[in-house]
Design a protein that fits this description.
Blueprint lengths: L2 H8 L8 H28 L9 H52 L10
Length: 117
């Protein structure tokens, strides 16, 4: 969660969606953006750009590149899961602190004046 998003949630009323809901929406938007990016890159790969036909050695190079990209994707997914877990942890901690603040606010009573109005 971005720092500005956290500040905004800190001051929001209780009717605002939970941080995990906002994060889920942001994740879905990012997922959609990346899917469009992948589709665009795949279209670029399909278009012949004056490249010679694939040779057996270039197929092997592409296979190696594919495996490297799959490993990178797996690493990114693992990092994404870690960040997602950390985000859930931060959201839970935020809710705990918010509950503590509410409890403290309920304990506070303004001093009363001893003189009649």
């Amino acid at each position: 969660m971005k720092r500005d998003d956290w500040r905004a949630t800190k001051n929001c009323a209780s009717s605002s969606p939970a941080p995990s809901v906002r994060h889920r929406g942001a994740s879905l938007r990012e997922n959609e953006r990346l899917r469009f990016r992948v589709a665009g890159l795949e279209r670029e790969l399909e278009q012949p750009a004056g490249r010679p036909p694939l040779l057996p050695q270039s197929v092997q190079e592409l296979t190696e590149r594919l495996h490297a990209l799959e490993r990178e994707r797996d690493d990114l997914l693992a990092r994404f899961r870690q960040v997602e877990a950390m985000n859930r942890s931060v959201a839970a901690r935020y809710e705990e602190i918010e509950a503590q603040n509410n409890n403290l606010a309920n304990l506070y009573s303004p001093p009363t004046s001893c003189t009649p109005p």
